[in-house]
Amino acid sequence: MTKLTPVRKEILSVIEHAEVPVNVSSIMDSLVSVPNISTVYRALDYFEQNQYIHSISLSGMRFYYGSSHGGHGHFLFCRECRELIKFDDCIVHSLQKKLQKQYQYLISSHVLFFEGLCGDCRKLKDKKSNSIFKV
Ligand SMILES: [Zn+2]
Ligand SMILES: [Zn+2]
User: Fold this and answer.
1) Which residues lie near ion ligand 2 (Cβ < 5 Å)?
2) How far does the centroid of ligand 2 lie from the alpha carbon of residue 132, in Å?
3) pTM as predicted
4) SS3 letters for 65-130?
5) Looking at the CA of 84, which ligand is closest?
6) Residue-range domains of the chain with CATH
7) What is the pLDDT of residues 10-19, one digit of tens each?
8) CA 6 to ligand 1 center in whole angstroms
């Protein structure tokens, strides 16, 4: 591992210890030091290029997650309130086995993202559409 500045170390540790992928504003909120936002973006680019972390865009928002846990994880993303939650139920192991056989791949890990509406946002949506129908 190359030498990282204290700020970069802190940013990396926030991402690697987060339960779910984090976006830039939640990274900023979790930092004790108060770096310039461009410093944070530069650090994120650097980490991604050097494969410390990975990123994914969900509904136009970029989320970062660490690779220290082998990059294994399963997440639900609500496109309305933009909350990400993690679930531990690993449903794809049999699919993974099948893919390995079919494509002769040695699969080391997987990350899954499901995008949709959470329970609360669904209720809100239902209310809204009901009131439209009542008018
Ligand atoms: Zn929601
Ligand atoms: Zn899994």
Assistant:
1) 90
2) 41
3) 0.81
4) EECCCCCCEEEEEECCCCCEEECCCCCCHHHHHHHHHHHCCCCCCCEEEEEECCHHHHHHHHHHHH
5) 1
6) 6-134 (1.10.10.10)
7) 999 999 999 8
8) 35
